[in-house]
Amino acid sequence: AAADLAAWLEEKGTTVDLAATARGLAGHNHGRSRGIVVARDAEAATAGMTRLADGKKGAGISVADSPDREGPVWVYSGFGSQHRKMGKELYTLSPLFAARIREIDEVVRFEAGWSLTDLILDDARTFDLESAQVGITAIQIALTDLLHAAGLRPAAVVGQSMGEIAAAYAAGGLTMADALRVACHRARLMGEGEHLLPEDKLGAMAVVELGVDQLEEFKVEHPEFAAVEPAVYAAPGMTTVGGPDKPVSDLVEYLDGEGKFARKMNVKGAGHTSMLDPILGELQAEICDIVPRPLHTPVYSTVDRGVVYRPGDVVHDADYFLRCTRQAVWFSDATGALFDEGHRTFVEISPNPVALMPMMNTAFAHDAGESSLMYLLKRKEPSGDTLLATLAELYARGGDADLAALEDPGAYADVPGVHWNLQHFWTEARPTGGAGAAGLPGARVALPDGRTAFSCPVGEVPSIAAAAEAAAEAVIPGAQVAAVETYAGLPGAGDAGDDGGAGGVTTLVTRSLGGLSVHVHVVAADGTSTLVGEAFAPTLPAGGAATSAGPAGAVAAAAPAATTDHATGHSAGHTAGNALPTVDEGGARWDPASGQSVADRLRDIVSESMGYDADDLPGELPLIDLGLDSLMGMRIKNRVEYDFDLPPLNVQELRDGSVDDVIASVERMVAEKDGAAAAAPDKAASPAEPAAAAASGKDGETGEADETEHHGVGVAPRDASERMVFGTWSGLTGAAPAGVTSPLPTIDEATATAIAERLSERSGADITAAQVLAAETLEPLSDAVREVFETEVEGNIRVLRARPEGSTRPSVFMFHPAGGSSVVYEPLTRRLPADVPVYGVERLESSLDERAAAYAADVKKLAAGRPVVLGGWSFGGALAFEVAAVLENDPEVTVGHLELLDLVKPAHPAPDTVEETHARWDRYAAFAKKTYGIDLPVPHDLIDAQGEEALIGLMTGFLANTDASSHGLAAGVLEHQRASFVDTRILDTLDFARWADVTAPVTLYKSQGMHEGAIELEPAFAEIAEDGGWSGIIDDLEIVQLPGDHLGVPDEPAIGIVGAHIVEHLDSLS
């Protein structure tokens, strides 16, 4: 429908009558899905409708596939939303709003003796304490009636402080006259009290970073602040307090000195505290005869904690508003209950939004970060624009908005009718190794072994020669194909399908001493590939001398031709005698003659990447249920492609597949690559019977745990003991628990016995079936195993290889990557001599300085009086450098060498601007949505108001408190993302110059570039500085060029090159 309308608008051009078009569309049946475009002219309408048709969102476009399950909540905020011109623009724009304000003004004149309309329309006058409170309530009532006139109704209402008055009107609890009566006299008495008090007796209020219980405990511990009282519980950990000016000011100063957020508000009173006690008697007298009415809409009370008043209840008498004036406001509890019940659409009804920030904090705390928090009016934004934008969003989310009422009566355009979208229900989708790209040579991927792969649809390839020429040109600009050999023709684009026709063309480019070797493959729809042509593009000048094929050749072939010095593995100041050590790159690949099966090799790869023992990997569970995150997935993908010499794998298949699925897929690909017939692969060696038995209850019934039930945030396995217990339970029951601390389902005694025997055999501990049956979570079983089994990780240190008896070699310390574990350095450990002790340094949750101090103590303890080599991948390299700086002048230990694995800066760093900050967070939110299906709404107002640090706190809190299982994820996935995000932000803000005084020699191992995921999050990383960003910081920097991209650095073949260099450095220190 959107495409039809976009084409119709394009055809009409500037002659289209948008008002008539809107009237014509207002009566259309929208069905379950809705989309709406807000536009002022034909060009904007056409552009917006085109984006809507393309499935894109943007400014002025609202779309939803289904209505909100629980409906919208209208939020009536309290004092603070006033401003000098509030209500004036909408008064002149909307006749209905203006008429309602005039009716309200008659009541205000009678009750208060002054004119609200005159105050709204006179720019020379401003609002004081009394008139602002009345004005806010009046505007809230008028906005409520405006929404009603547009056909909209709330599913529930909630008020905040004085917002309870308009909320009562919106819910049917008070008439307009009685609501204004309460507002006028409440505001008058508070204003009179403020004017009568001398300056030194006035009250004050402040927002402080203390929750309900924290504030009570704090006051008990600090009786000097007894006069400070809670006023508004705005959000978890955020409370507004009030009292006499001096104690409130002293509290703000004290908390600020403790590093907590505390800000004094620009008010001269202390609402909702005992300072209002003197006015309560007269307020009771003025409003005692208001008539409460039965509610027609639920009210989530902020006066009576935890109470929801339902339709039919009679609530809003004088006593209710006396409590509303004097008692603390339970706004956090009320909005939290709404989030818990599933409400996800909230509209603040006020002259200017003031409640969105505390609601956002509450949303994150209640696992409702995907909620939409909207406002009707905002200061300095056109009222018509904000009102229409919110109406459009409410309509898209299922609101019964009368769109025809937004336009004056008039003609109806002959808009396109209903377009029937005929569906073909048999999918033609096929797995693919990556997204296509428009034009030749196609989507580009740098493989770990140094080759470059391109993939595109067969219909975009005119000939084999054209594919080869485009690929060669893309790898080395100016390269020209000198020879082409064709083995078969290209199939037609229409041949793709179930019959094994072509699904695409994959072109592989390999560098050699003389040029580029190009292989063109046709990939069928079922994943099989056929070599259809080869080509060669020379890069040496005609008649040029050949380069020596010495040991450096292996790395030089994988390096860009433009970086001659670095390509041979030297820094610019090194001589040719410093050639790279010889590396047996093929030694790490899988060899069919080795006797190791594909299945065993794959289990080794998966277990090494994920931190499991190979024996603890359940074959039938999806890898993502075992904690697979994006980094692990890419490492497994790269290792499998390299070890088995396979074309690019589909990372999504790894994410969703089980170990058995991956084994079967790789066995098939290996067999096809070797020319074997399509023989059935061996089944993975994991017993099906125990899994089937455990999945059944005592009488063959399924386990009692409800698959859709979530038990809060799952804790991922954190050490070897927990991984062993987690893997054993998952493998023998056929279902992974939500986390280590999550409740376990009921199992039968036979399954418990099998688990106990398996754990006892694997760990050496004496585990009984009774212990297994008694365990409510995996923690007690993990504790029992840990007592006997766990010696691998001690404090911050993972012992990758203990110091052999009699060894005098320097120790190697490798620091964890961002958000990850030092287990990634196991391939490096295998490349180092057996007499070299290797320690992995694990993650601490603290600042960079605090981590470095703790790590330095560990290094000194394990150095045994010998020199040490420090290193790390990316963020791990930064940790290594920081520890080296701490140890620089320490006489007990000498840092012999620093090994930096791809710790680099962009050639053109992103600017440090507010605009770039907003863009970076939008990219991160899009990544979380695309990768994990998690909505991370970016509160741009928070960035503007409090800076990026405040948002980092919110986002990390959200990730730490999100129930991973509700998104179909294991807990370890979100924990990795949270920790990785924190570490990466530390790295992004580091200035390498802080380490300029470190004297240890440094080697930088530089990949061919960042992986696509990193570039997606930070486009500046598309181009890395030639020297990695170290120019002017390290005078004698050795740079070693590695094959493959950033993600391939800790694995073969790149890690073999790293290991060979570290061996040289160790030999020079021994």
Automatic annotation (TrEMBL):
<keyword id="KW-0808">Transferase</keyword>
<dbReference type="GO" id="GO:0004312">
    <property type="term" value="F:fatty acid synthase activity"/>
</dbReference>
<dbReference type="InterPro" id="IPR014043">
    <property type="entry name" value="Acyl_transferase_dom"/>
</dbReference>
<dbReference type="InterPro" id="IPR036736">
    <property type="entry name" value="ACP-like_sf"/>
</dbReference>
<dbReference type="InterPro" id="IPR050091">
    <property type="entry name" value="PKS_NRPS_Biosynth_Enz"/>
</dbReference>
<dbReference type="Pfam" id="PF23297">
    <property type="entry name" value="ACP_SdgA_C"/>
</dbReference>
<dbReference type="InterPro" id="IPR001031">
    <property type="entry name" value="Thioesterase"/>
</dbReference>
<feature type="region of interest" description="Disordered">
    <location>
        <begin position="565"/>
        <end position="595"/>
    </location>
</feature>
<dbReference type="Pfam" id="PF00975">
    <property type="entry name" value="Thioesterase"/>
</dbReference>
<keyword id="KW-0597">Phosphoprotein</keyword>
<dbReference type="Pfam" id="PF00698">
    <property type="entry name" value="Acyl_transf_1"/>
</dbReference>
<keyword id="KW-0596">Phosphopantetheine</keyword>
<dbReference type="InterPro" id="IPR020802">
    <property type="entry name" value="TesA-like"/>
</dbReference>
<dbReference type="InterPro" id="IPR016036">
    <property type="entry name" value="Malonyl_transacylase_ACP-bd"/>
</dbReference>
<dbReference type="InterPro" id="IPR009081">
    <property type="entry name" value="PP-bd_ACP"/>
</dbReference>
<feature type="domain" description="Carrier">
    <location>
        <begin position="596"/>
        <end position="670"/>
    </location>
</feature>
<dbReference type="InterPro" id="IPR029058">
    <property type="entry name" value="AB_hydrolase_fold"/>
</dbReference>
<keyword id="KW-0511">Multifunctional enzyme</keyword>
<feature type="compositionally biased region" description="Low complexity">
    <location>
        <begin position="677"/>
        <end position="697"/>
    </location>
</feature>
<feature type="region of interest" description="Disordered">
    <location>
        <begin position="677"/>
        <end position="719"/>
    </location>
</feature>
<dbReference type="InterPro" id="IPR020806">
    <property type="entry name" value="PKS_PP-bd"/>
</dbReference>
<dbReference type="InterPro" id="IPR001227">
    <property type="entry name" value="Ac_transferase_dom_sf"/>
</dbReference>
<dbReference type="GO" id="GO:0006633">
    <property type="term" value="P:fatty acid biosynthetic process"/>
</dbReference>
<dbReference type="InterPro" id="IPR016035">
    <property type="entry name" value="Acyl_Trfase/lysoPLipase"/>
</dbReference>
<protein>
    <submittedName>
        <fullName>Polyketide synthase</fullName>
    </submittedName>
</protein>
<dbReference type="GO" id="GO:0031177">
    <property type="term" value="F:phosphopantetheine binding"/>
</dbReference>
